[in-house]
Amino acid sequence: MPPPAVEKSFCTTRESATLLGVSVGTVQLWVESGLLQAWKTAGGHRRVLRDSVESLLHKKPAVVSVAPDTQASGARVLRVLVVEDDPSLLRLYETQIGRWPMPTHVTLIDNAVNALLHIGRGGPDLLISDLQMPGMDGFGMLELLHRAPEMAYTTVVVVTGLDSNDVNARGGVPAGVEVLAKPVPFTRLLSIAQNASRRLGSAPQAQ
């Protein structure tokens, strides 16, 4: 009888990208950031630990809701991603964004790692994120996303309980990211979302 097959303990970057449903470039970015564990062969090729890929694969899925009548209007839907670890705030975001006048699809995620995995499969039109979260915080997530090609057409907004001095003391946020203070200023967020929605006609849709 032939010996039993032994599953590899590592993947190539392309294999990892296929398993995770993201681009090879995104896998390389996650390796550089430490989100995926990997090493380089003598020939300079990356090998990603299969356990770290499996760990990302088994993250719980995002909670998704679609605002009423978004599909029937014929207008392009504004894809909104909210990253916030407070469940009550996530529910508030879902309720308030569901009342926005433009066609909107909102995805709610409670941690930065799941958000990175979600974005790796296609960036949103509008990202709203907290900064203080367990595990990887918003600072680390935004630093990674600042270099991610999936975010080329994404408007990014931070909503935080930190004051400006605290934000700056912790390294700040990437250029172009607007920082808003909690409690969540939904009137300002609506204005930002309307501007993002108006730009959809000139930006290519993510594949």
* Binned strand content: 15-25%
Rg: 19 Å
Distance between the termini: 46 Å
Any guess at the CATH architecture of the largest domain?
3-Layer(aba) Sandwich
Overall shape: it is: globular
- The CATH topology of the largest domain comes to Rossmann fold
Reading off the top of the CATH hierarchy, the class of the largest domain is best stated as: Alpha Beta
Strand order of the largest sheet: 4-6-5-7-8-9
CATH superfamily of the largest domain: Response regulator
Q: What is the residue-averaged pLDDT?
A: 83
Beta strands, count = 9
Secondary structure category? alpha/beta
Low-confidence runs: 66-72
Order of helices and strands: EHHEEHEEHEHEHEHEH
Number of discrete helical segments: 8
Biggest sheet overview: 6 strands, mixed
In helices, the fraction of residues equals: 25-40%
Topology:
Blueprint: E1 10-12, H1 13-20, H2 24-33, E2 38-40, E3 46-49, H3 50-57, E4 63-66, E5 78-83, H4 87-97, E6 104-109, H5 112-120, E7 126-129, H6 138-145, E8 155-160, H7 164-169, E9 178-181, H8 186-199
Parallel strand pairs: 5-6, 5-7, 7-8, 8-9
Antiparallel strand pairs: 1-3, 2-3, 4-6
